Amino acid sequence: MMFKALLVSLCLFFASPLAAAEDSRHTFGKYSFGQDCQSLFSGPSYAVEKARPVWDPKYQMFGLEHDPDVNAKSPFVLHYDRDEKPNFQGVPLGRVYYGCTKSSGRFSLVLMTHDLISVPLLVQKASALYGPPTMTTMIQTIWNLPDLYVQIDQVYMIIYDTRAGKPDGQS
Predict the structure, then answer these.
(1) Is 68 helix (H, G, I), strand (E, B) or coil?
(2) How far apart are CA 6 and CA 17, in angstroms?
(3) 96-101 and 91-92 strand pairing
(4) How far apart, in whole angstroms, are the C-alpha atoms of residue 76 and residue 109?
(5) d(Cα 130, Cα 80) in Å, to the nearest integer?
(6) What CA–CA distance (Å, rounded) separates 11 from 130?
(7) Which of 5-9, 48-52, 104-108 is predicted least confidently?
(8) In the predicted structure, residue 53 carries a pLDDT above the cut 70
(9) CB-based contact 21:128 (threshold 8 Å)
(10) Over the stretch 120-141, which tens digit does the pLDDT of each residue have?
(11) Do 160 and 108 meet the contact criterion of CB atoms below 8 Å apart?
(12) Which pLDDT tens digit goes with each residue over 80-129?
């Protein structure tokens, strides 16, 4: 009986860091993907960004669109905290936009602005978290994982929780 209790305790001890590591892939700072956006991103310091992330099926990557006609087709709304001093794994960022899927109202995407000088360090930090990139070109690095899509280019880093559906909003 004592051996059984010890065995169960050891299993829980060793499993808990793995569960925490898996869960950390689906969070950004204090926010977990899938949470209700209205409760997360409301308050006096939050604002809604006019630009919207749009999936380009031809190039299989996100872009940020400012055109109101294109924005209407985006499945996302971006929120940001005017007072936030963001970073990614210790790398300073310009601003973080939290993307909410329009159809569900759930947090599903993070878009981070950064400077060009930060790209190598962001790629290094992301590689430590997500493993080797799926694709690398001169201007972008992409991790296309079963549960996450991560894109780093010269201006943005985007993390999309693919459990929320296809990035273009199509079923």
Answers:
(1) helix
(2) 18
(3) unpaired
(4) 8
(5) 25
(6) 25
(7) 5-9
(8) yes
(9) no
(10) 999 999 999 999 999 999 999 9
(11) yes
(12) 999 999 999 999 999 999 999 999 999 999 999 999 999 999 999 999 99
Instruction: Please give the span between the terminal C-alpha atoms of the chain, in angstroms, as a whole number.
Output: 51
Pairwise CA distance, residues 84 & 34, whole Å: 21
CA 13 to chain centre: 28
Q: How far apart are CA 60 and CA 142, in angstroms?
A: 10
Instruction: Confirm whether pTM is higher than 0.85.
Output: no
Angular region, 52: left φ>0, alpha ψ -120 to 50, beta rest: beta
CA distance 147 to 163: 6
How far apart CA 168 and CA 127 sit, in angstroms, is 25
- DSSP annotation of 129 reads H
Residue positions counted in the chain: 171
- Cα separation, 81 vs 77, whole angstroms: 14
Burial of 121 (0-12, 13-18, 19+ CB in 10 A): middle
CB 111 within 8 A of CB 64: yes
